[in-house]
Amino acid sequence: MLTRTQALALEQASDAEFKTLGLQAAAVRDTHWGRTLTYSRKVFVPLTNMCRDDCGYCTFVQKPGSPNARVMTPDEVMAVVHEGERLGCKEVLFSLGEKPELRYPQAREALAQLGHSSMVDYLAQMCERVLEESSLLPHVNAGTLSDEDIHKLKPVSASMGMMLENVSRRLIQRGEAHYACPDKVPVQRIRTLERAGEQGVPFTTGILIGIGENWAERVDSLITINHLHRRYGHIQEVIVQNFRAKPGTAMANHPEPDLNDMVRTLVLARLLLDPSISIQAPPNLQQRFGAYIAAGINDWGGISPLTLDHINPERAWPQIESLRSATADCGYGLQERLAVYPHYQQYPDRFFAGPIAARLAGIARGDGLALAQCH
Ligand SMILES: O=c1nc2n(C[C@H](O)[C@H](O)[C@H](O)CO)c3cc(O)ccc3cc-2c(=O)[nH]1
Ligand SMILES: C[C@H]1O[C@@H](n2cnc3c(N)ncnc32)[C@H](O)[C@@H]1O
Ligand code: SF4
C-alpha cells in the first residue's frame, strides 16, 4: 500500500508511470477479488427530493414550492419495490435529501400528514415495510446521521452509505461546491462514518471527484476513509464518482473530470486503500468500461432494470447483458451480489440487529433469496 508521501507524489507521475501503476492496481484487485466483477440489481427510491443543503452540482434537490418537490407516499414506494421484486431486484436504495424538515415548513407538513416528525423516522418505517412485505434488502443513503438515526436504521437496513465526497474545508467557502451546506461540512461527514463504525454498520462511502478539490485533498479523503476502516472494519466499499455538470446548477460551467483523471484516481484508490475494501465506479457516468477495469475496480455498484439513476437521470444504466459482455471482453466475469458484502455476513452479531439480522440469517441458511440464486 502507498504511503501518503508516495500518493502525493503521484500527482506529477507521467502517463507511462501510471501505466505501470495501473498494472499493479489490477494485480491487487485480481489477488483480493479475483477475476469476477460484481453489481447489485436494485431499485432506486428517492424518498424525498427536498433537502436542507444546496450543493452546487445537484439537480436532484427541489425547493418546496417547485412543482417537482415531493415526499413519496408509502404506496408509491411499495409499488416501485414490488415491481423491482418482479424484475429480480434484491436491493432498495433509498437515496434522499437531508433533513428537509429542519429548514422547510412544507417538509414538516408533508411528514406530519404521513404521521412522522422527521425524514429519518419515515425512512426507518419504510425500510421496515420493505422487509415485511418484500424480499428486497434496504440500503439507505440519507447523508449525515446522528447516533440515534443510526440506531433506528440499523435493525431495518442491510447497509448504509454516505459519500464522504471530500475532506477539504475549502469547498465550504463562498463560491465553492459545498457553500452553505451544513451536511457537507467535512467534520460532520467524518463523524457519521465514525458513528457507523462504532455501531457496527456495513458502510458504503466514496469520493466525488472534480468538484474543485485538488489531488492532495483526494489523497487525504481516501486516507481518512482508510483510517476509519482500520479502526472499525466497516467500510465495505468506496465509490469513486465523477462530477457531471448539470444545466441550471451553480456548477453548470465547471469542467468535468476526464477519463484519464478518473482512471488515475481509481488507481490511487486501489493502491492506497486496504485491499479488502471493494472499489466501485458507476458504469453510467462514462462509457469506457475497460479503462475502469484496467484501473483495478471490482464492482459496478447498483444497476437497475427499472428505475432511473435519479441523481444522474440523463445517464441511462447500461443493460446488464451489455455490461456483462463488455466485462467479458476484458477477461472478467460478472456476478450479482447483495447490498451487503459476504464478509460482513460472517459477523452477524457485530453487523446486524433485529429484523434485518433475521432476514440475513435466513438467506445464509438458504431460505429466501440465496446469493446463489442471483442472476
Ligand atoms: O444509482 C446510484 N447508486 C448509488 N449508490 C448505490 C450503490 O451503487 C450500491 O447500489 C449500493 O451501495 C449497494 O452496495 C450509492 C450508495 C451510497 O451508499 C452512497 C452513494 C451512492 C451513490 C449512488 C448513485 O449516485 N447512483
Ligand atoms: C449520492 C451522491 O451523488 C453525488 N452527486 C450529486 N450530484 C452529482 C453530480 N452532478 N455529479 C456526480 N455525482 C453527483 C453526491 O456525491 C451524492 O452524495
Ligand atoms: S447532493 Fe444530496 S445533500 Fe447535496 S443538495 Fe443534493 S440531495 Fe442535498
Short descriptors:
binds iron/sulfur cluster, 375 residues, 4Fe-4S, binds the ligand O=c1nc2n(C[C@H](O)[C@H](O)[C@H](O)CO)c3cc(O)ccc3cc-2c(=O)[nH]1, globular, TIM Barrel, alpha/beta, binds 5'-deoxyadenosine, 9-stranded parallel sheet
SSE map:
Elements: H1 4-9, H2 15-33, E1 36-45, H3 74-86, E2 91-95, H4 105-113, H5 119-133, E3 137-141, H6 147-153, E4 159-161, H7 186-198, E5 203-209, H8 215-232, E6 235-242, H9 259-272, E7 278-280, H10 289-294, E8 299-303, H11 320-329, E9 333-336, H12 342-345, H13 348-351, H14 354-365
Parallel strand pairs: 1-2, 1-8, 1-9, 2-3, 3-4, 4-5, 5-6, 6-7
Bound molecules: ligand FO1, 5'-deoxyadenosine (5AD) and iron/sulfur cluster.
Residues 51, 53-55, 58, 60-61, 97-98, 143, 183 line the site of iron/sulfur cluster.
Write a short abstract of this structure:
This protein is an alpha/beta fold and 375 residues long. The chain contains 14 helices and nine strands.
Alpha-beta content class: alpha/beta
Count of runs of 4 or more consecutive helical residues? 14
Distance between the termini: 34 Å
Q: What is the CATH architecture assignment?
A: Alpha-Beta Barrel
Task: List the secondary-structure elements in sequence, H or E.
Answer: HHEHEHHEHEHEHEHEHEHEHHH
The CATH C-level name is: Alpha Beta
As for the CATH topology, it is: TIM Barrel
Domain Radical SAM core: 37-282
GO molecular function: 4 iron, 4 sulfur cluster binding; 7,8-didemethyl-8-hydroxy-5-deazariboflavin synthase activity; metal ion binding; transferase activity, transferring alkyl or aryl (other than methyl) groups
Protein name: 7,8-didemethyl-8-hydroxy-5-deazariboflavin synthase
Organism: Marinobacterium aestuarii
